Amino acid sequence: MSDDEAEFRDFVRVQMEPLRGLAYLACGDWQTGEDVVLTVLARLYARWRHIDNPLAYARTAVVRAAIDETRRPWWRREESVGHAMPDPPGPDDGTSVVDERLRIRAALLKLPPRHRAVLVLRYLEGLSVQQTAEVLACPEGTVKGYTSRGLDGLRQILGVELVADEDAEVHHEIRPV
C-alpha cells in the first residue's frame, strides 16, 4: 500500500462520520447523504495527490452534491415516512431534548436547500462567513443574506425567537412571534 493510499484511508476513517452528518443535514435523508459522501470520496480519491486541503474539498463537494440531490425531480415526488414528527413526549420523560432536535430538523427541511446549507455550515459546522462563501462558491454578501432569510424562515416555522451568538451557536427560546 502506498503512502498516498494510507493517508486517504486515514482521512476516510476519521472524516466519514462528520461528512455523513453534514450531508444528512444538507439534504435531510441518511441514505442520500451516505450516497453523496461515497460519491465525493470516490472523486477525492482520484484527485488525492493534487488537493492541498482535502477536508475543505470534501466539505464543499458534499454540500454541493447534497443540494444538487434535493433538486432532482424524483426528490419532490417521494417522501419517506420517517419525516413524520412523533407525538409530543409526556412531561419529565427525558426526551424533550430529542423532541426539540427533531422539531428543528423538520423545520430545516422546510427551508430552501441553499438557506439550509448556509445555516448548517455556519451554525452546526462552525464555519465563518468567508469559509461558508468559499464552500458554496458564492459572495460573502449572499451568505449573509441566506443566513438572515434562513433564520427568519426558521422563526416563522418554529414560532420561536432564534438568537445567534458570536460563538456560532444558535440558542432558541420559545416565544410567540
How would you describe this structure in keywords?
177 residues; Arc Repressor Mutant, subunit A; globular; Rna Polymerase Sigma Factor, Chain: A; 8 helices; two-stranded antiparallel sheet; mainly alpha
How would you describe the overall organization of this protein?
The protein is mostly helical and 177 residues long. The chain folds into 2 domains: 1-76, Rna Polymerase Sigma Factor, Chain: A; 92-177, Winged helix-like DNA-binding domain superfamily/Winged helix DNA-binding domain (Arc Repressor Mutant, subunit A, Orthogonal Bundle), CATH 1.10.10. It is 67% helix and 5% strand. The protein contains 8 helices and 2 strands. Strands 1-2 form a two-stranded antiparallel ribbon. Helix 6 crosses helix 8 and helix 7 packs across helix 8 (140-158). The model is unreliable at 81-86, 165-169 and 172-177 (pLDDT under 50).
